[in-house]
Amino acid sequence: MNAFLAANQPASNDEVIQWESHFEVKLPPEYRSFLLKQNGGRLQKFTFYVSGAGEFGIDLFYSLKKTEQEAIDSLHYAALTFPEFLSLKCIPIANDNSGGQVVIDENGQLLFWDHETIIEPVNLYPLGDSIAAFVESLTEEPVEPTSGDVALFNDGTKEDILKMVDRIDIN
């Protein structure tokens, strides 16, 4: 089980409503629930692999912070910094160690944006449709595919590739 390193003060329903009203965005139900229970933070396990992009590490999940000093780690700050996501009907919910963003779309789909690319749909990599499953899938160790896995894509049979894909646990 993955755990948050420190407990944040849960967001209040009023704070969530105020954020939604300010940005004219309705938060997906699972993310709303996450803010009301955990309200962001740093995780014990944080490494994930994105097919086609590489290995990344979650720095923190944004929260609805209450003080100016903590504002840089806030959902408010992230939405102001990356307004392009809001125009794509996505909300930045976490950042990686190098500036990339985990975002959630209006349907609750989690996506990853590598900061080395332009913010547009083609540069958003799917991570799954559950925050809880994504958090549990994070590891402490590197999760890069093996050279054998990479070789399968280059010259493997369809059956070999499907077997390899079936072993990968994305939840």
**Low-confidence segments:** none
Query: Widest sheet: strand order?
Result: 1-2-3-4-5-6
Query: What is the number of E strands?
Result: 6
Order of helices and strands: HHEEHHEEEEHHH
Q: Report the mean per-residue pLDDT as an integer.
A: 85
Helix content: 25-40%
C-alpha termini separation: 13 Å
Largest sheet: 6 strands, antiparallel
Percentage of β-strand residues: 15-25%
Q: Output the radius of gyration.
A: 17 Å
- The coarse overall form would be globular
Describe this structure in words.
With 171 residues, the protein is an alpha+beta fold. The chain is built from seven helices and six strands; from the N terminus they run ααββααββββααα. It has helices spanning 13-23, 29-37, 75-81, 83-87, 131-137, 147-155, 158-167; strands at 47-50, 54-61, 90-96, 101-105, 110-113, 124-128. Strands 1-2-3-4-5-6 form a six-stranded antiparallel β-sheet. Strand 3 (90-96) and strand 4 (101-105) form a beta hairpin. It starts with 12 loop residues before the first helix and ends with a helix. The model has no long low-confidence stretch (mean pLDDT 85).
Secondary-structure map:
Elements: H1 13-23, H2 29-37, E1 47-50, E2 54-61, H3 75-81, H4 83-87, E3 90-96, E4 101-105, E5 110-113, E6 124-128, H5 131-137, H6 147-155, H7 158-167
Antiparallel strand pairs: 1-2, 2-3, 3-4, 4-5, 5-6
Summary?
This protein has 171 residues and is of the alpha+beta class. It has helices at 13-23, 29-37, 75-81, 83-87, 131-137, 147-155, 158-167; strands at residues 47-50, 54-61, 90-96, 101-105, 110-113, 124-128.
